[in-house]
Amino acid sequence: MSVLEIHDLHVSVETEQGKIDILKGVDLTVNEGEIHAIMGPNGSGKSTLAYTIAGHPKYHVERGSIKLDGNEMTDLPVDERARAGLFLAMQYPVEIPGVAVTNFLRTAKTALDGEAPALRGWTKDVREAMKNLRMDSSFAQRNVNEGFSGGEKKRHEILQLELLKPKFAILDETDSGLDVDALKIVAEGVNRAKAETGLGLLLITHYTRILRYIQPDFVHVFVDGRVAENGGPELADRLEAEGYDRFLTETSVG
Ligand code: ADP
Ligand code: MG
Ligand code: MG
What we know:
The chain is built from eight helices and twelve strands.
């Protein structure tokens, strides 16, 4: 049984105006096969949490821990965290000019496994995953994220998720800007990954819409660098009806 444990996480970032504290004591435990939705207003630190777990060097862990199956991740570089089983679908996926999707995926898989996947099986897996995500086969020859539409970028993130088979994935607003058809396709991919590999998921989102297709076991309200409230799926409905005002007021008062 795999588990991702985040304990008392404090994170700062260096800016031109000096160091600023963004995360102020985050506690979160995600077990294998669990889906945790993280909802919160803009600027509350959701992407910072995602980047910090993945190991972005810009974000400094001041205090606390990120443990995967008991192993401390905080001092490991990005690639070692990926090998340990962590995956981040970024809010703004980056272009990699000159690198075709098919080569990118194979290189990533090889780096993760320590050996190249057998060509026949791999080619078949890629073809099947692309078909499941309704991606045209010509897509494999395009350069990563270059000229991709918003929906194509997000689908490409899910394609990686399905092929690289991490233990835990963080999806940072993967639903933003998707029309309902693309949203369903993305959700199907995530649900497949969960069913096939017992994926544990941190689903960062502004909207409850995606939670109709990817049902969360837990919902966390994220405000001002920490978890302000924990609940079940009903908490998402409440947020949709009431917004974040209640939490923001509590924060500014207390
Ligand atoms: P969210 O994803 O919830 O919208 P972010 O984690 O992106 O929030 O940002 C939280 C706060 O930290 C914001 O005020 C943002 O401007 C600041 N911040 C995040 N990353 C950086 C950075 N690399 N440099 C400067 N400020 C940052
Ligand atoms: Mg934001
Ligand atoms: Mg963000």
